[in-house]
Amino acid sequence: MNEHIKLLETSDPWEIIVRITRNNKIEDKSLKINRDRTCPICFYPIKLNEKCSHHPGLINVVEQFEMTIGHFYKLDYNGKPLNWFTQELKKISTYPYRYSHELFRQILTYRITKSGWDLDDILFSTMVPTTNHQMRDLFRELAISLRIQWINPEVLFNSKRPTNFYKNRRDYVRDKYEISKYALDSLNKIEKRGKSVLLFDDVLYTGFTIGRIIELLCKLQSFQFKVVIIGRTIKRGLIETAYFPLKRP
What is the pTM of this model? Predict the structure, then answer.
């Protein structure tokens, strides 16, 4: 299969347009978020006059971060994709590694450069610990391309395998992650720039994991965080505020 994926420039930073060329056939797909009914933290669609309660894990650290997210995805009750991006991800998962890697890289680079963040104020970048090698490579490459110092998460955090006997995700995450005893020494060795940390993760659901990592890093210093996430889930039963795909003129 002859395929090429390209992220197109748009005048609206809340819109993603991807051009997919397969066997010389060009198709543009668009994802746009209606800002009028979205959560100010994670951009979940929410009902009118209803407060967002989709990320309880971020409540205690909400004053310490800004967030940008590449896209959201949604599944129906049978696990079948309901939007074009999820469908593409499903297809891409059977393709060579470079397709999904390049698509994620373009989307996150676009989101970061259009965020208005002062990248010179970022002291270093890291990520939520994961065993996913693609995510590790992707986030490290992004940091390097933005000329931001990268610290491997294993240097900063200890991860263990808790038991399965937890009433909720919050307790599981709290028990799983701890700050490394070498973390402060590692920070003292890096070149001093700003006071912010660029923090990557793959998917946002409740926010307990991101919230825990922010809490741990704040034990070292009083950081502010720029959080970058590839995707976020949408809970069932919410009012639809995004449409897939948008027809282009």
Answer: 0.77
